[in-house]
Amino acid sequence: MKYFKNAVIILLFSLVSSSFFSQIKPLDAMLTNYEYPFTVHFKTFNSQNQDLKMAYMDVKPKTANGKTIMLLHGKNFNGAYWEKTAKDLSDKGFRVIIPDQIGFGKSSKPQNYQFSFAQLSTNTKSILDYLKIEKVIVLGHSMGGMVATRFTLMYPETVEKLILENPIGLEDYKTLAKYQTIDEAYQSELKNTAETYKNYQLKFYYDNKWKEEYQPWLDLIAGWTLHKDYPKVAWNAALTSDIIFNQPVVYEFKNIKTLTLLIIGTRDRTAIAKDHAPKEIQPTMGQYQELGKKTQQQIAGSKLVELENVGHLPHIEVYNQFWNALYDFIK
């Protein structure tokens, strides 16, 4: 009887999982069949001898307060997940610029491109120049925090304030883990499925507690795996994983002179290449309850807001706590 009950439970779980994942729709490389929350614009430009398109949203407030904020997405995301943040910022009078980096979201997926955080920052600055925006507040989440850091170091005169929300790159991964070649990373990316993505998000983002409001951010990346374009997306993912590993920003936090806020979910354990580190090292990586404090000490005059028992995605998991910290800093 015990084994029969276990078999029934496994069968029911399989049926629920099958139904759950069957709702995910295939998405092409440019997300042409996925509607963003705001009007999407494209800036075309030539970079590294290639004609590229960089998508961005420009959310203008009804009553402007004269301030502009730019929201930079993480590696497993695109600009769409800033929807609620952008709406609330706009309601408070901020103009909100939300780019999709090259290789992400609705932007071009070049197959022969030398990615770097400096290149991504240069591309991002070209959007602001095109829009004739001279001063911005910059908010970067996850990999977007590494882009935001490099952007601030390259264009300190442009950045009025800097906010880093659970940024990766608070430690130097290449000193902790074995290098994975781009070809190896590509093969690993090709193995991703809706199920592997959900398991990853449950572990690092949501503490194994799934809620309906998390589903859209799984659908976006999981939908790619179901489309024939996925190898293009996987290749870009491998290229950007490489720069995260090989282009640390941790040694340059001390050079940031811009007023900075760190919003840190202390339950987060995200660390690139953790599975390639020695087993005794793995538990020491991605300890955000320690990394947040260490980073605050490195950035002179910075403010740290720790969100207890919160994972990698504060602006999705505990939006009100995230918003209060953000708005208190920029109002």
UniProtKB/TrEMBL annotation:
One of its GO terms (cellular component) is membrane. Pfam families: Abhydrolase_1 (PF00561). The lineage of its organism: Bacteria, Pseudomonadati, Bacteroidota, Flavobacteriia, Flavobacteriales. Gene3D superfamilies: alpha/beta hydrolase. Residues 68-252 form the AB hydrolase-1 domain. It is an enzyme of class 3 (hydrolase). The keyword Signal applies. Its EC number is 3.7.1.17. This is 4,5:9,10-diseco-3-hydroxy-5,9, 17-trioxoandrosta-1(10),2-diene-4-oate hydrolase. Keywords: Hydrolase, Signal. It comes from Chryseobacterium aquaeductus. One of its GO terms (molecular function) is monoacylglycerol lipase activity. Residues 1-22 form the signal peptide. InterPro entries: AB_hydrolase_1 (IPR000073), AB_hydrolase_fold (IPR029058), AB_hydrolase_sf (IPR050266), Epox_hydrolase-like (IPR000639). One of its GO terms (biological process) is acylglycerol catabolic process.
